[in-house]
């Protein structure tokens, strides 16, 4: 005899199902970075240590899996900055945590997949993108108000440079370039500190301008 689920009670996924989903997302992130968005889902299942049916049960198509990977990366990057801000109250330290975490998460390799191939206006992607943009705007605003961050840079400036410095130069091995990413990002961050040593050409780039470019 079956027992009916009481009305109003939400059935929660089992712990092992949640672990499998996380393993799939982690494996997909690694393989998308290594091979691009067209990597076979069977290979992702093999790296995750699950069956093909488990992948399709969690993600009905490739778009859904790519979207989940990109959203999870953006969410973890934003959470790192939020945690740094809560722990220290130091806006520039939160900015540094955001930049270095974005590099570790390979956000520069994953986000172009969405902009070039998949639906940019999916509600999940929009929410994750807006969260990260609002957080960076808030952190940069607080750092400027505290006299830590030069006044002539915008959120768009930061996101462009992080993407450029986190991406390996053409013809180089990703693992080799990883040795230098955080070194070069820290050089960039030191250049953001106030007082500025030189005047920047042009004007600060906003999020709106970045989206239009």
TrEMBL record:
<dbReference type="InterPro" id="IPR049445">
    <property type="entry name" value="TetR_SbtR-like_C"/>
</dbReference>
<dbReference type="InterPro" id="IPR050109">
    <property type="entry name" value="HTH-type_TetR-like_transc_reg"/>
</dbReference>
<keyword id="KW-0804">Transcription</keyword>
<dbReference type="GO" id="GO:0000976">
    <property type="term" value="F:transcription cis-regulatory region binding"/>
</dbReference>
<dbReference type="Pfam" id="PF00440">
    <property type="entry name" value="TetR_N"/>
</dbReference>
<dbReference type="InterPro" id="IPR009057">
    <property type="entry name" value="Homeodomain-like_sf"/>
</dbReference>
<keyword id="KW-0805">Transcription regulation</keyword>
<feature type="DNA-binding region" description="H-T-H motif">
    <location>
        <begin position="40"/>
        <end position="59"/>
    </location>
</feature>
<dbReference type="InterPro" id="IPR036271">
    <property type="entry name" value="Tet_transcr_reg_TetR-rel_C_sf"/>
</dbReference>
<feature type="domain" description="HTH tetR-type">
    <location>
        <begin position="18"/>
        <end position="77"/>
    </location>
</feature>
<dbReference type="InterPro" id="IPR001647">
    <property type="entry name" value="HTH_TetR"/>
</dbReference>
<keyword id="KW-0238">DNA-binding</keyword>
<dbReference type="Pfam" id="PF21597">
    <property type="entry name" value="TetR_C_43"/>
</dbReference>
<protein>
    <submittedName>
        <fullName>TetR family transcriptional regulator</fullName>
    </submittedName>
</protein>
<dbReference type="GO" id="GO:0003700">
    <property type="term" value="F:DNA-binding transcription factor activity"/>
</dbReference>
